[in-house]
Design a protein that fits this description.
binds S-adenosyl-L-homocysteine; single chain; 8-stranded mixed beta sheet; Rossmann fold; OB fold (Dihydrolipoamide Acetyltransferase, E2P); alpha/beta
Length: 506
């Protein structure tokens, strides 16, 4: 594997824009961390650059080891709970600091050799040094901790204590090569050559890469072909610092069941240079290719996509299947990246909805209607609501594609549309919500409490906002019955959950 690096940034680049998962260990929020001047007023019993012995007691929400040294907290990338290590102190704040792992003195039985040889540099995975079974246990525990700490909820204990049942995390038999989508930044190496790969942890320095162990091999192959063609056609890579150059990102999406492939080339320019040659080469070299799309992003931004998307060749969508339901997926559609685990997650949501064929179900935050169509197979009628109009167009098309007639969709903010539905007399026996990381809007939670469905199924990608919202629903008369964490993103710190609540009020 070639390991060229992009120019200049040398670790001092801007931090990557990434959704920050919930805080899991006692780590102060970013603001508090940067508010104080370094070192001078630190409580640490040692100095910067000193080597200290650290005992690890936990992991933070982003997978760093939480270490203790002389009564002081040090965050150390790479340490696992139960381990002891020698570490070099890098940065000191009043109550905590950061250190670099030098040598493990005592290792955890949960430690494994990261199979990927760029794990340490890459920002994509955080937990490859941890055995998969231990990752699953840690994810379950992180859900439990959030429910208790943020939600002030009682979790059922192993010793028969009453409370919410939190099941073991549903893992994958083979937790590799699971991603159906790759979005890879393009840049220039020091010698000006076009490279594409990943951002080194915490920076915008691109490291060239051809093989990613959590990526479907077809997507890796697409990226390799795009790189090769870009070389041959002498396409200028985009330079983040100067804003010059053409190719910014490559996105590859594979329908894992259908075998259909979409390539999206994100350019800094309106015109796609050498368009006919691009099309010819990609068609020849990518099996299963159904769609080549250009997206124009000429802004200085961390966002991958701009507003303008056009089909250069082939279809506007690719098709894929989840549990026998077909979905049309366009370049900008949200579609879960781990299809195998998505089926487990959605099946669990349907199970929790306990449908008999008569129920009216609301699916809030429905995206392209994925959960809605799973539900529709067993419900009386499903009402989906979603804020992105294009996603609603996809949802309607997907219902039609599958001959599903008992699902209808409306575009708009769920917290506005649902109260209106209520006024129009749309009642719900079950409400399913699947909000983004920030959780449900308070107005939406109020609407759930006003509609008072017998069951609420909460699908969440962020245990801390989940716990916050469950507290509100509990205070309003719901009882949280059970939680199933599903591992949608093995080797990363992310955890997804499906939760069942039942009306328990008067
Ligand atoms: N249930 C879908 C999508 C979940 S992602 C699936 O599993 O594929 C969350 C979705 O919520 C996104 O599609 C996002 O566009 C949508 N969203 C965000 N804020 C919203 C709001 N206020 N009202 C309705 N939908 C919203």
């Amino acid at each position: 594997m070639s390991r060229r690096q992009s120019k200049g940034a040398g670790g001092s680049g801007k931090p990557m824009k990434q959704g920050k998962p919930a805080v899991q260990a006692a780590k102060p929020p970013k603001q508090a961390r940067s508010a104080r001047p370094a070192k001078s007023d630190s409580d640490a019993p040692f100095q910067k650059n000193e080597e200290v012995t650290v005992e690890f007691v936990g992991l933070t929400h982003d997978g760093e080891g939480v270490g203790r040294a002389g009564g002081y907290t040090l965050f150390v990338q790479g340490g696992l709970p139960g381990e002891t290590a020698r570490a070099r102190v890098m940065k000191l704040k009043k109550q905590y600091g950061y250190a670099r792992l030098e040598e493990l003195v005592k290792t955890s039985p949960d430690r494994q050799n990261p199979p990927c040889d760029i794990f340490k540099e890459c920002g994509g995975c955080q937990l490859q040094h941890m055995d998969y079974a231990a990752q699953l246990a840690w994810k379950r525990q992180s859900v439990v901790d959030n429910l208790k700490r943020i939600g002030k909820l009682q979790v059922a204990g192993e010793d028969g204590e009453e409370g919410i049942v939190v099941h073991p995390t549903v893992g994958m038999d083979n937790p590799w090569r699971y991603r159906n989508k790759a979005a890879v930044p393009v840049g220039a190496a020091d010698d000006g050559q076009l490279i594409a790969g990943f951002y080194a942890r915490g920076t915008h320095r691109i490291i060239d890469m051809d093989d990613c162990l959590i990526q479907h091999d077809r997507n890796d192959e697409v990226v390799r072909v795009v790189k090769k063609v870009a070389h041959e056609l002498r396409i200028q890579p985009y330079n983040e610092e100067t804003g010059q150059g053409v190719l910014r990102h490559v996105m590859a999406r594979t329908g894992v069941v259908s075998g259909e492939v979409m390539v999206v080339l994100v350019t800094n320019t309106q015109r796609m240079p050498r368009q006919p040659e691009w099309i010819e080469h990609l068609r020849k070299q990518i099996p299963g290719l159904k769609s080549i799309v250009q997206n124009v992003n000429d802004r200085t931004t961390n966002a991958i996509f701009g507003d303008e998307t056009r089909v250069l060749w082939g279809s506007e969508v690719i098709y894929d299947e989840l549990d026998g339901i077909r979905f049309a997926i366009s370049a900008r559609s949200f579609y879960q990246v781990n299809p195998a685990q998505t089926v487990s997650l959605y099946r669990k949501a349907v199970e929790y909805a306990a449908l008999t064929g008569k129920e009216r179900v609301i699916d809030a935050y429905c995206g392209i209607g994925t959960i809605s169509l799973f539900l529709a197979r067993q419900a009386g009628h499903v009402y989906g609501v979603e804020i992105v109009p294009e996603a609603i167009a996809d949802a309607r098309r997907n219902a039609e594609l599958n001959g599903i007639e008992n699902a209808s969709f409306e575009a708009g903010p769920a917290e506005v549309v649902m109260p209106r539905w209520r006024k129009e007399g749309i009642e719900a026996d079950v409400i399913v919500v699947d909000p983004p990381r920030k959780g449900c809007d308070p107005a939406l939670l109020d609407t759930i409490l006003a509609l008072q469905p017998e069951r609420v199924v909460y699908v969440s990608c962020n245990p801390s906002t989940l716990a916050r919202d469950l507290r509100v629903l509990e205070d309003g008369g719901y009882r949280t019955v059970e939680v199933t964490p599903v591992d949608m993103f093995p080797h990363t710190v992310h955890v997804e959950c499906t939760v069942l609540l039942k009306w328990a009020g008067e």
